[in-house]
Amino acid sequence: MAATSRGTSPVPPDVRPRLTVLSGPSGVGKSTVVAHMRKVHPEVWLSVSATTRKPRPGERNGVHYFFVENEEFDKLVANGELLEWAEFAGNRYGTPRRAVLDRLEAGEPVLLEIDLQGARLVRESMPDAQLVFLAPPSWDELVRRLTGRGTEAPDVIERRLAAATVELAAEAEFDTTLVNTSVEDVARELLALMLQASGDRESSD
Ligand code: ADP
Ligand code: 5GP
């Protein structure tokens, strides 16, 4: 099998939606996997984060991110409108709280694609959340993907690779690891994990 998972267990009969967090080093393929999953399953809801980063070519406001200025981000933080937020490689990113809580209250599974710091904060505030780590097949392949994407300047790539060494060292903090060899396989496995019941993590430990 191209994608490997660790720590997963069979789907129990009592399926309740839960919050799933997908993290992994920059360039590993998180956006690609999520985009593929949503192409096959448009009903899957993904939280749209706010960020102070400038849009990449093709990125749309309100679709990929809410692109905001520093002052607007300050306000979101001050007003308690973010479930979590973090600074990553020189920009700030945060998850709008209300939309996530509304979906969970409506009984729908929720997916966050956020960095390691954000994943740790979510674990603290929502211990029932399921943390999924997306790992590269190798370090060299991660470097190839990040540079091959062609969206960041060399100094930004350096910062992101420095962050990646820290993130890769934290893999054991996650409930499950998926290795991104095949986008299709990982997208399928991620969806299956999202549909797993709340509380399953505790009972499978
Ligand atoms: P992230 O969102 O984790 O920063 P991206 O989704 O932007 O990463 O992917 C980084 C680059 O790697 C992109 O050019 C993407 O096309 C490529 N990529 C993603 N998954 C795979 C894969 N399984 N095999 C080969 N290339 C991939
Ligand atoms: P990028 O600039 O490549 O889109 O994202 C950089 C990093 O920020 C990635 O690891 C991505 O998962 C993370 N990120 C995106 N949105 C959020 C968010 O709302 N909160 C946190 N903590 N990280 C985020």
Task: Note down, in words, how this protein is organized.
There is one protein chain. The protein is of the alpha/beta class. It has one domain: P-loop containing nucleotide triphosphate hydrolases (Rossmann fold, 3-Layer(aba) Sandwich), CATH 3.40.50.300. It contains 8 helices and 9 strands. Strands 2-7-1-8-9 form a 5-stranded parallel beta sheet, sandwiched between helices. It has a 4-stranded mixed beta sheet with strand order 4-3-6-5. Helix 1 packs across helix 7 (183-194). The model is unreliable at 1-15 and 197-205 (pLDDT under 50). Bound molecules: adenosine-5'-diphosphate (ADP) and guanosine-5'-monophosphate. Adenosine-5'-diphosphate binds next to helix 1 and helix 5. ATP binds at residues 24-31. Its EC number is 2.7.4.8. It catalyses: GMP + ATP = GDP + ADP. Belongs to the guanylate kinase family. It comes from Streptomyces fulvorobeus.
User: How many helix segments?
Assistant: 8
Overall structural class, as computed from helix and strand content, comes to alpha/beta
Assign the CATH architecture: 3-Layer(aba) Sandwich
What order do the helices and strands follow? EHEEEHEEHEHEHHEHH
Structural Rg: 16 Å
By DSSP, the count of extended strands is 9
Shape: globular
Q: Give the N-terminus to C-terminus distance in angstroms.
A: 24 Å
Strand order of the largest sheet: 2-7-1-8-9
Low-confidence stretches: 1-15, 197-205
Biggest sheet statistics = 5 strands, parallel
The portion of residues assigned to helices is: 40-55%
Please name the CATH topology.
Rossmann fold
